[in-house]
Amino acid sequence: MLLRRLVIIFATLVVTGACTGGQVDQTATTSGPDPETLGRIVVVNDGGNIVTMDYDGSNANAITEDGSSVRYFQPVWSPLSRVMAWGQGGEDGFGIGIRNEDRPDSLTLPVEGFPFYLNWSPDEMRIGALHSGVNGSVDFVLVDVADTSSASIDSGSPYYFSWSPEAEALAVHVDGDRLEILDESADPTDLGKVSPDFLAPQWTPRGIFYVGESGLVLREPDGTKLEIIDTPGFVSINPNPDGTMVALHVLSGEPAGVTVGMTTQESAEVNAISIVDVDSGIVDVVDGQIPVGSFWSPDGEKLLMLLISEEPGSIDVRIWEDGDVSNLDTVDLPQSVVNQVLPFLDQYTQSMQLWSPDSSHFVLPAIRNDEPGIWVFGDGAIDPVRISDGEWASWSHT
After folding, report:
1. Which residues on neighbouring strands pair with residue 44, listed in sequence order?
2. From 56, 140, 248, 306, which residue has the greatest number of CB atoms within 10 Å?
């Protein structure tokens, strides 16, 4: 259950409250990697405005300037170009903003409620959006970018979705017990019984990962269902981009109970990250610390891990690669990240990107040495660099 997951995260992680940001770190340098190969970073700064910049904070481009009167929320990049979309709300109502970074004007599409989550289709022709509906429901809206139109196609609460790699369909997990494929046909495809102890399905080239009655299941493109591993607790599913490895966060506030089925499978470690090789079934357990999040690099080889630190209220930042773990830093996280992102990580890993396109750097909103802001980390050989104030950042795919 989501409630159990929230209890675990908030009971274990006491994060410092909201902090004010400062000016961009003047020690940032433009020497080093070629910015063109590293793409661009979009942030929402402390003034509430959307700004894009290079990996070192240079060449800043103000996308909005009225953040004091309009709330701009969680901009994310399209997968194939440097176009971004975000949610917004103000006196004129709610909308989804779209802007090509290289063009001067933004497009705003009105919607009925505040858009609190956006995810581009892999062909960047559509955007899936969630906004608040009536009587506590969540409305799922599809935006046609070319036609600049939107239509509400489903609702429920809670609501999670994942695009197919070909952008032709979506897997949706709704109300905790409905798992379906939505496409152009009249009727959804029911994928059968599921566990309530997971949030978002994950559709990869290998198929759809979800949690069945006993553990992790892979529904392959031909419809075959493979039982991967037993998962005795609340599960966050995080496959790498090609679906060959899956990071599982299995959280449980109580000792694991008796599980049924999958008797020949290994069991994922409770309150740890288990990295499963889908083909071989080999499980690498990163043990000893409770996970709060993880993000795969675009090349699918590295896993950025955020783990509960022994230091009260802090997070250890580590990188897993081919069985080896590197310790990079210990930081605090902004309250907005704890409240809005961490409880729904397996949805956010599909829409926001923390890694640079070449998998060499990553960006993280964090509080380091009592200094809040947006920090860029390299390979561990250089110190992190503060590039901006703010509590939201996402790296472009190109």
Report:
1. 50, 392
2. 248
**For the chain, which residues score pLDDT lower than 70?**
1-32, 253-266, 287, 379-381
Is the Cβ–Cβ distance between 96 and 119 less than 8 Å?
no
Cα 155-153-42 angle, rounded to 5 deg: 85
- Tell me the one-letter amino acid at 307: L
CA–CA gap between residue 69 and residue 9 (Å, rounded): 33
39 vs 357: CA distance, rounded Å: 7
Sheet containing strand 61-62, strands side by side: 61-62, 50-53, 41-44, 392-395
Q: What is the pLDDT of residue 266?
A: 63
pLDDT at 255: 35
Instruction: For residues 44 and 352, give the distance between their C-alpha atoms in angstroms, rounded to a whole number.
Output: 13
Q: What is the largest CA-CA distance in the chain?
A: 59
Helix (H) or strand (E) holding 367: strand 362-368
How far apart (Å, rounded) are the C-alpha atoms in residues 258 and 289? Answer: 23
3-class DSSP state of 356:
coil
Predicted confidence at residue 276, as pLDDT, reads 96
DSSP-derived secondary structure letter, 36: H
Which helix (H) or strand (E) is 360 found in, with range? none
Cross-strand bridge partners of residue 317:
306, 329
Q: Is 136 left (phi over 0), alpha (psi -120 to 50) or beta?
A: left
Q: Are 346 and 158 in contact (CB under 8 A)?
A: no
Q: CB-based burial of residue 68 (10 Å sphere; 0-12 exposed, 13-18 middle, 19+ buried)? A: exposed
Q: What is the pLDDT of residue 214?
A: 83
Residues 6 or more apart in contact with residue 40 via CB below 8 angstroms? 52, 53, 54, 77, 82, 101, 395, 396
Spatial neighbors of 227 by CB under 8 A, at least 6 apart, are 212, 214, 215, 216, 217, 261, 262, 265
Predicted pLDDT at 23: 36
What is the token pair recorded at 259? 């599980």
Q: For the whole prediction, is pTM greater than 0.85?
A: yes
